[in-house]
Design brief:
Chain lengths: ~70, ~525
């Protein structure tokens, strides 16, 4: 349980850290330079999210005793 | 302008909004349920237990009803681009049409193929092939959303890094497909939309399971379904908030009028606050001298807007007044200056085509050079802005009411705040439900079950308000800073749009009633009545 929560915290904080480091800044809409690397990283958050979610579902079912055979 | 009756614009907008809202009742449910069904089926294949197959098939039935209606309403949308928004389609079709075409060819066909196997192939294919089809259906439906949101990302942030206004064809044309699809604006929108959809469908499953538990029906089925939904919903709702924060940051920096309207920020401030609760007044920005007079009352969280929008608690966040009147201290140009440059670009475009007709090569060359003249370059990034990039602002050259440049404050403010408030409510529900579930105590948590049942419609409200924030917040542009909404409509007779509006309204009411009736019947029948 503690390990899983730690893993989730690493996942979310890693995401925020990456966001801070890679997201560009600008005051007017026209000068907002596109960072394609950050865009690709963002895209791959989707499959990671699905895998993490499924693992968390398995953990929940085992921990609650609703399904032990996973 | 084409001398159009403004009523035509309003009817076209109303029709599009109605179709979008109706379509968006089905889309998030499909996006989330497709993965929930895949999770249920994976557990069934891993354990080999029949009860998980029953759970999968029940939720798949509810998913299937929505899936069909989502497809049908989505197609109407695409037709409306041609019928009511043909100027828009013509001007930006090269950029907007590409992701839409990929969506149709790749994702839509992927969905359609694997939907057939997943829905009807239980007895026709092996377990593993069926499971793979269910997963590919989920991936396909979410990829559909990706391509649509790439197209929408372009409308929110049309950078000259992936497209330019071609003086020869008078259209926006693509220069870099990779930049278009990987621009963070689009990817953030995708993540925010799909995680909100996962939250919505998880709360639906949790709510219906709670209803069964309250009625002491299908108890084992409900407990297992609720456990899967609570776990998925917990992760999804937290991630929706995390990526929502990123989304707000990105909007602050790419669409300052949207965030200013969403927070009722008329006058730019250093250390700007977030309004946690408030009643904004609908005032013209030029008449407002302080942010306090723009609200009937408000409760603020000091410095939070600067912190979330600029990652610095003391940073300056421009208000609507700055964006209209300009603020030289922070390098913000007044709207009049942008409008002047835009008008010059329109004049260059006109001169170019007149010279072309006359066969005057020298005049063509001069007009073209002037059209692509650099008016600003960023010393940090090297990005250059030409007159052509600001052509859309030319529309506002002769507009008396400069407040038309920003979206309506109260509408965007309420839509945004209701969405955010509900988002936090979902996290609370999922945390509470998940904690009870892992202690195997959810069955007796009657109050929590009741709250989950009552909360079932709320994510639909939250996602609809989210869309309203995004789309009304972008006004008065269809493509932000490039193509004004009044310039985008089809110059056709008003009666045509009115007639189709009521035709679609009738169809949507009938379809909506049919959908709800089927859903209630399946839910009432329970898992064994589903197949």
């Amino acid at each position: 349980m503690k390990r899983l929560i730690a893993l989730l915290m690493v996942f979310f904080s890693g995401f925020l850290f990456a966001a801070e480091k890679l997201m560009p800044n600008g005051i007017s809409p026209e000068v907002h330079k596109i960072d394609t690397t950050w865009g690709v990283i963002l895209f791959f958050m989707w499959p990671i999210l699905i895998i993490v979610s499924y693992k968390f579902i398995e953990f929940t079912l085992k921990k609650s005793g609703l399904e032990k055979d996973l | 302008m084409h001398g159009l009756d403004l009523n035509m614009l309003e009817w076209a907008r109303a029709q599009f909004a109605m179709t979008a809202l109706f379509h968006f009742f089905f889309v998030p449910f499909t996006l989330g349920m497709s993965f929930l069904v895949a999770f249920f089926e994976t557990i069934y294949v891993k354990t080999g237990k029949k009860e998980w197959k029953e759970i999968t098939q029940f939720w798949q039935t509810l998913f299937g009803i929505n899936f069909a209606l989502g497809l049908a309403t989505g197609i109407i949308h695409e037709f409306e681009f041609g019928t009511n928004w043909s100027t828009y389609s013509w001007v930006v079709g090269d950029l907007f049409g590409a992701p839409l075409a990929v969506e149709g060819i790749v994702a839509f066909f992927m969905e359609a193929t694997f939907a057939a196997i997943s829905f009807f192939g239980w007895k026709r294919v092996s377990k593993s092939v069926h499971l793979a089809s269910t997963w590919l259906l989920a991936i396909g439906s979410n990829l559909s959303a990706l391509w649509i949101l790439i197209a929408n990302g372009f409308m929110q942030h049309p950078s000259n890094e992936f497209g330019f206004f071609n003086i020869e064809t008078s259209r926006l044309e693509m220069t870099d497909f990779w930049a278009l699809i990987t621009q963070p604006v689009a990817q953030i929108k995708f993540l925010h939309t799909i995680t909100a959809s996962y939250t919505l469908s998880s709360l639906f499953v949790l709510g219906i399971s709670s209803l069964y538990l309250l009625r002491k029906k299908h108890v084992d089925f409900a407990k297992k379904s609720a456990a899967v939904a609570a776990a998925f919903g917990l992760i999804a709702s937290i991630f929706t908030a995390v990526i929502g924060d990123e989304h707000a940051y990105e909007v602050t920096n790419t669409q300052p009028t949207k965030i200013a309207a969403a927070e009722g920020l008329y006058v730019g401030e250093k250390g700007a606050s977030i309004v946690a609760f408030g009643i904004p007044k609908n005032l013209p920005a030029r008449d407002v001298t302080s942010n306090d007079e723009a609200f009937v009352f408000k409760i603020e969280l000091p410095k939070m807007l600067s912190l979330l929008g600029k990652r610095d608690p003391n940073a300056y966040v421009p208000g609507l007044k700055d964006l209209i009147e300009g603020n030289p201290e922070y390098g913000i140009w007044p709207l009049k200056k942008l409008a002047q440059i835009g008008a010059e670009a329109r004049e260059d475009l006109r001169k170019y085509h007149e010279a072309k007709k006359a066969g005057d090569v020298e005049a063509m060359k001069a007009a073209k050079e002037d059209f692509y003249k650099v008016v600003w370059s960023d010393p940090k990034t090297g990005l250059k802005i030409t007159k052509a990039d600001l052509i859309g602002y030319g529309f506002f050259k002769n507009v008396d009411n400069l407040d038309l440049i920003h979206p309506p404050v109260p509408t965007v403010f309420y839509a945004f705040h209701i969405m955010v408030g509900l988002g936090f409510w979902f996290i609370i529900i999922f945390v509470a439900a998940w904690l009870k579930i892992i202690k195997n105590a959810y069955e007796n948590a009657t109050l929590l079950q009741k709250l989950a049942v009552i909360s079932v419609p709320l994510p639909w409200i939250a996602t609809s308000f989210g869309w309203m924030t995004a789309e009304i917040g972008r006004q008065p542009w269809t493509v932000f800073g490039v193509l004004p909404t009044p310039e985008s409509v089809t110059p056709i007779a008003l009666q045509n749009v009115q007639a189709t509006f009521f035709m679609f309204l009738t169809a949507f009411v009938i379809l909506g009633i049919a959908e709800l009736k089927i859903l209630f019947t399946v839910v009432k029948s329970g898992p064994k009545g589903a197949h």
